[in-house]
From TrEMBL:
Listed transmembrane segments: 20-43, 49-68, 75-95, 101-119, 131-150, 192-209, 216-235, 255-275, 310-330, 342-362, 369-386, 398-424, 436-454
Source species: Veillonella montpellierensis DNF00314
UniProt keyword Cytoplasm, yes or no: no
Descriptive protein name: Guanine permease
GO molecular function, one term: purine nucleobase transmembrane transporter activity
Amino acid sequence: MLEKLFSLRERNTTVKTEIIAGLTTFITMAYILFLAPNILGIAGMDKDAVLIATALGGGLVTIAMGLIVNYPIALAPGVGLLAFYAFTVVLGMHIPWQTALGAVFISGMVFLVLTLTSIRQMIVKGIPASMKIAITVGIGLFITIIGLKLSGLMTVSLSLSPESMAALSQSHGSLVPPASETLLTLGNFHDPHTLLSLFGVIITGLLMARNVQGSLLIGVIVTTIVAHITGNASIPDNFTCLAIPDMSKAAFFELDIPSAFHMGLITIIFSFTFVELFDSMGTLIGTATKAKIADPKTGSFPGLGKAMTVDAIGVSVGSLLGASTITAFVESTAGVGAGGRTGLTAVTTGILFLLCLFFTPLITIVPSCATSPILIIVGALMIGAIRDIDFDDWTEGFPAFLVITLMPFTYSIANGISAGLVIYPLVKLITGRAKEVNWIMYVLAILVLIRYIAF
């Protein structure tokens, strides 16, 4: 049966290899089960509800990817879009989380239409490589700042009394700026929460340096244990590791689609759709290539259309369950590296996600100081792509620079993307290199300008 479903012999693999690969993928991305509830909990959502949505949504969509497409790719709520959803949309724009979920649902439907009409492929092809890379790097910096804030390693808007500022100035001279000019500064290292977060960053970073499989998950577990041992986290009374999931806590179908159609949310829907567009496409193609299913040199990508369709539907399905944008995870390459070549790898990972529904009490005792370091580490992984941007070419480097800097410094993924879409074709046009720009970039630039001018 498994041979018939997944063509194991054709792809030169075995059931044992696929199951081990699926377990490997799960271990490397299981941190999302701890991270998503803590981030969306800050946005006002019930942590138990988010955990159920993450495990159920990630599990079902990943299994669908394995059965329908036969790709070894796992999906779950994306880290960058989790941060965008919680901090930019819900907290920054004061939009109810139900309405934000409605925007995610609509973006999924838009994404599906773009996929079925092949417009999605056209957009991805029309956006220059430097812009795609800049979006990845910018999101990496964006979630790093969020991780630094949540961990307490960085504080915002330093405000000291005149006496304290005078004392600091006397001891450090011109190195101390006026309080009103200080935006970011180091956190309070007398705070146990901050010290535990720092410990989490260091231990996870060291594990990554040693190329330990599942470094992020191990870092979360070790930091959680230390937090409980030192009395900085507590286990509730009547605690049990295993429990039947309480579906009454779930946020199924609580999204507010009508409110999301409000004109002010057009840019939000656009941002969800645009970021997911490149994030998923890069992961799908990269993982399929590494698994030797696809060959970018010849343009052979069997099943890619199906994979993109499942990915698009997963976005809307996740919002119906109460999760932010579900997307393909680059950690899937860990499973491929362990030998995964078919959808059985994805099915194995999906089943493990579903089984986690029965371990929700264990997951909920993980403190935020154990999960915030993940954002910092993931940010470090994402920023490495900056090496592939040609900063010697000003028409490529300057728009990329704006994308990268405006995302974290304006606390908005949308602002960064919008700036790049407008400036890139503009500088090419001014320098007489308009022919280097795909026509779709001009269309996107006009749409962005209309949005900022009219709305």
